[in-house]
């Protein structure tokens, strides 16, 4: 029997099967955020299919990764921890380092679900570092979104806004990644930014970002409901009750699409809080009791405590002091058991207020003293988590430095030349460079801006590329300011250059990109530092030049993408775009 036709058929069929499997997993990657229960069912079917037709290790690893994030969305945190720990170990074993930051993000988010920030935050820092090192924009966006959410919940707003801004900037690079693993829909990142702006007091912008999220094609199912509830809550705080009620109604219509009991209970709890804000106290009480019942059945102690706090607020509003005290005492007992000192502080404070309303001032005072102790312990826990996070970042920087030194040493050993040959080669190169520089200078007009700003034989773009490579290798920030020259007079431009150089640091430089365009290069300058430099330089520019744009370097930038983002920033002038 001739097996060649059969073999040829198999060779043609296998790549098609692999491509189909990858496309299916891409679809599941979005589905798990919209309808996690459906995504879980499809993953089980795909797992059975791959048992009959075994796939490569990389495909199997991605399947486990998607299962991990699905368990997170379903609220199955322990299952997610088990999958994440196994997945990272397996990725190490297979030498697939690029897969590790995804499992680290999943593990961190699962720990966060148990309110274990001491493990979660250092893991997220490591995931961000590894994602950058392995050039995985999908993992970077994933980890930055998680970290931004955690920093928002812990009132670390400056860090959160930097993370979420970077996640939105890096999102365009997600589909350029050669091997797809996992990434959140953009609507989820927009929702995180909207929530940050809401809790930090920028209500109008918070509502705007949630509305942008609702316009995203992926905003279906659970994602859409999250955005609607966020928007309804902000509208209620803005006292726009009609808009809030309309958005809340749309969110309630999506409840049948949520199949997870845990997620359904979370939705009910949020709806109850919005109903309470809108003044429908009785409805808020009924919905909160439904949510609390589910949380107790699921063993979700953190969510149960927060729902009991809401119920206590409802009872206090209704004048039911005894029932409010009962709920807060249950929160207190659970908080002691789980070391949830922030929840304990809030519960004790509310309990003290209820006692004071009842005229029991001695009990109220004792409760406030205990609330102060809980506050101190909550702050100590937060400081411990931040210290561990800081140590993790220092370790990452040290590892990056050591790795760079090892690479440099290997290169030196690999390319060690005979000394005489090396000296001759260097002399020859110097002569060529000098000759080329003299030729370029003699062929240009004396007063061109290129000659004013670039002293060597390299173009502005080449010098920019060189600076970007150094910044990436040294893992330090780099920012640029794009200037558009309005005046063409050589003497005036020379005066402007002198004034700018006096205001800039020795490490900064001015490059000419075109006859009417200069670039100010700012090494070791973050986005915040960039804004200070622009404020300092603005008075010097008019009427000779104007700022045409600005940008800060990202790990995946080329000189073209960096200048493109700088130009776009010049057009939008939006600090959060």
UniProtKB/TrEMBL annotation:
Protein name per UniProt: GGDEF domain-containing protein
Segments traversing the membrane: 419-440
Organism lineage string: Bacteria, Pseudomonadati, Pseudomonadota, Gammaproteobacteria, Alteromonadales
SUPFAM superfamilies: TPR-like
Organism per entry: Shewanella sedimentimangrovi
Keyword Membrane attached: yes
Key words of the record: Membrane, Signal, Transmembrane, Transmembrane helix
Keyword Transcription regulation: no
Signal peptide stretch: 1-19
